[in-house]
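Lab notes, practical 5.
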Amino acid sequence: MMAHQARKRFGQHFLTDEGVIESIVRGIAPRPGDEMVEIGPGLSALTAPLLRLLDHLTVVEIDRDLAQRLRRQYPPEKLTVVEGDALDVDFSSLGGNLRIVGNLPYNISSPLLFHLMRHAGRVVDQHFMLQREVIDRMVAKPSTADYGRLSVMLQSRYRMTKLFDVAPEAFDPPPRVVSAVVRMVPLPADRRRPKSEQAFETVVARAFAQRRKMLRRGLSDWAESIPWAGLGIPETARAEELSVERFMDLSDALVDAGVLRDG
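Output from the prediction step:
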């Protein structure tokens, strides 16, 4: 079979280190009957060991040549190939207790994580390899340099754990960054939720758009409608100091005041 040339436009870096592959599979701990979906299977570095442990696997692959290669390599009763961009895939249509895994293309990692949030109600867990810098932001705590919009939005929906780092030498071609593996488990149905998801997203985005400013200035359009003292938010507070719950309090207050729509 001809060697596949990594395509820059798809952000392809193929995992080749057997030790790293074993560590990822061990972290995922696949069971035969799992409804598992792999994003970006590439040259089957994860696909092959996963299929040894699963009854069936669904993969999402944007590269037409790689999709064809996968169809030739594995019988359809073992592997379903969804050819297309993961950003366009309706993951909820792929099953009800999904376990999603993948070495995600770093150039679309944040948009893809937000896309997957819409389907979190049908997901058991997610294990992804990403740029370490992105994972550090995902799991960051308030009042740290890495804490930002990505931290707040994803922590409102998932419990996340960084598992381990992966050196550039584990890939061909090697990326210019260190990678890491993260476990994401959706929070339960009885989790704290904002009154309006849309209002929550709007407040978080606006707050971190000017993260160096005090919140009262960053949210100046709405400042008079926010009961700052009642919410326990100091006058000098900046966005990075607020917990996920406090951001929900903020957006709920603006919905209650009729400033942001409940929708």
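Observations recorded by the TA: The mean pLDDT is 93. Strands lie at 14-15, 35-39, 57-61, 79-83, 98-103, 123-131, 158-166, 171-172, 179-186.
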